[in-house]
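Recap from last week: sequence in, structure out.
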Amino acid sequence: MGTPTSQDMRATYRGAMARFTTGVTIVTTRTMDGPAGMTASAVASVSLDPLLLLVCVGNTLATRDAISGSGVFAVSVLSRGQDRHALQFASRCDDKFAGIGFRIENDLPVVEGAVAHFACNVKEEIAGGDHTIFIGEVVSCGYSVDANPLVHFGGKFGSLCDPHSHAQLGFDWQLAASM
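Predicted structure tokens:
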């Protein structure tokens, strides 16, 4: 058995990372030409004091230059059922914002119905291979207590199972089957 090539290792790495369940977000910013945005799963909390989070943005994406130029970005954590939003913002379509409800938070577009949102000022840009890591200082945020998040695993979208409703559904199915 030979040593794996770097191409083999990249494919294995991608497959292994696809087994890491993540939330799905839309990262937005503003430019002189209007809003810009993209889908991202590489988002993480960095610090509570000060409030910092990070997003990783591909260096070839227009959103990378837009965030760097504006010095601000927002992160909307998507809810179950917002997979169409994620796909639209992951595409290279001309108007990613078409047909998607947004509101303005700290002068930044935030997805309506998102589980949570964060508005940030860029504190630091770090080169990270073919990505740029933006560390943002959170200037405002909010969340919905009852929302169910959209998650990504194995290249597919899904959601968390609410144990109470899942148990009720199982009971209802058992009851229907016995009649």
